[in-house]
Amino acid sequence: MSYLVFARKYRPKSFKEVIGQEHITITLANAIKKNRIAHSFLFTGPRGTGKTSTARILSMSLNCESGPKENPCQECTNCIEIQKGINPDVIEIDGASNRGIDQIRELKENIYFSPVRSKYKIYIIDEVHMLTREAFNALLKILEEPPAHVIFIFATTEPHKLPETIISRCQRFDFRRLTILEITNQLKSISHNEKIDIDEDALLKIANLSDGCLRDAEGFLDKAFSFSEDKITTDTVNRLSGIPDFSIFKALLKHINEKNSSGISNIVNTIYNSGYDISLFLQQLIKLYRIIYQLKLSNNSINGFSDDVISSLKEYTNYSEISLIATINTLFEIESNIKYTPISSIYLEIKLIFISNLDKFIDIDTYIINSENSQISNYKPIKKTNEHCDKNNISNNNAIPISDPNKWDDFLKYVDDNSPRLHPFLIDTNLVSIDKNVISIVTKNEIHKDMLLKDYFSNFQKLINQFFSGTYKIVIGVSKSVSENIEKEDNNLNLIKKVFNAEIEEIRRDNA
Questions:
Q1: 262-278 pLDDT, tens per residue?
Q2: Of 241, 257, 275, which marks where a domain is finished?
Q3: What is the 3-state secondary structure (H, E, C) of 179-241?
Q4: Which domain holds residue 119?
Q5: Which CATH number covers residue 222?
Q6: Each residue of 197-214: pLDDT tens digit?
């Protein structure tokens, strides 16, 4: 018999052997047991998670010579042929190469013929999202009223590309991405059966590289076993995967943390001169920074990396949360753009040096908040005013200074109790002075000033007279320092926009 790769040799043959999809296999087994079989199924999820294998197991369960039953015998002619993909009553169709209307019309003509020797005629259409619109329309007619002996099983990695009319006529099952632990345990089982000597760290690295795809992990183990002469180590995995050893990542993280531009340049030269896959290198670097972010938020254990790696990464949890997010975001940008860059080595080098200096940049929200807090703490009310002063420049020599500067806070509370709709427009105001018949205040907001002098003036005047027991003229000014600071903020934001080649979508000021 010819050699079978691990992915085929260890393909599950029963619902119990399917890894990590119990929410699906238990449901299907119970449906068969209770004779509640839908006429069409839709299996969705990432590649290598068991969709096609489960479709074959479901076909065996339904067409087993001693069935239908939830545990097919795997020994009868039907079960053996279905496993091999040669059963005449279980037709597997590749949606990518049979995507046209003609193929679906041919299918429509054949479905009315009875099965050759089974209870059901089952059509498994893989990558069904590749069908054309016309093919979907023809398929829809079939799904509306299929013959009793026909069952459709559709598999796709991109369910969003299917028409809703197709999805609504199927019983949908979503396959999830497998965990590092589930893949590692399966690789251990295969290694034990095949008598493969492999390091625990090498198993973890293979599982991590597979990104939840069991088929990829089994294929990589197969390749590593063929490559190694005795024992599979992390060095073996590194050489086959095109990803540098962790020691290189460790050195790079150290250089970035210390803002060592020369060290970063040397690492980039090493990566390029060694011929490593830059895209995989960046993906791995993103994963490492994400682990640092996870460790910062929580000290819970992280699957997929050895204790030594986790211990090394804990050194960098002193980064701020916003810095880590910005770093990961920048790395994604590099990974996306580097393939279009003529001199990729220089692009990578400059971008990594930029990342090392990210903590020098303050996020816009923090900048605005700090600026406004500074304005409030540094604000000094003008002590004098004039009955006939300009509302925008409250200053003169004839005003009476405030005898009780907490008095305005009491008034604001009085307004809050008696006119809640007016109160928000007075929160950012300060009392400057009270003359015999003039009250002068200053606000940090031109809009609030206009609202107080126009829309809410009569009510404001009434409350002023009641609280201060008299008839007062109200003079409202706008702090020049605030206007100047806002202008300065806008200039700084424009500078940030220019440096980062960014677009500012929104500017939020608490007092606006």
A1: 999 999 999 999 888 89
A2: 241
A3: CHHHHHHHHHHHHHHHCCEECHHHHHHHHHHCCCCHHHHHHHHHHHHHHCCCEECHHHHHHHH
A4: 6-174
A5: 1.10.8.60
A6: 998 889 998 998 888 899
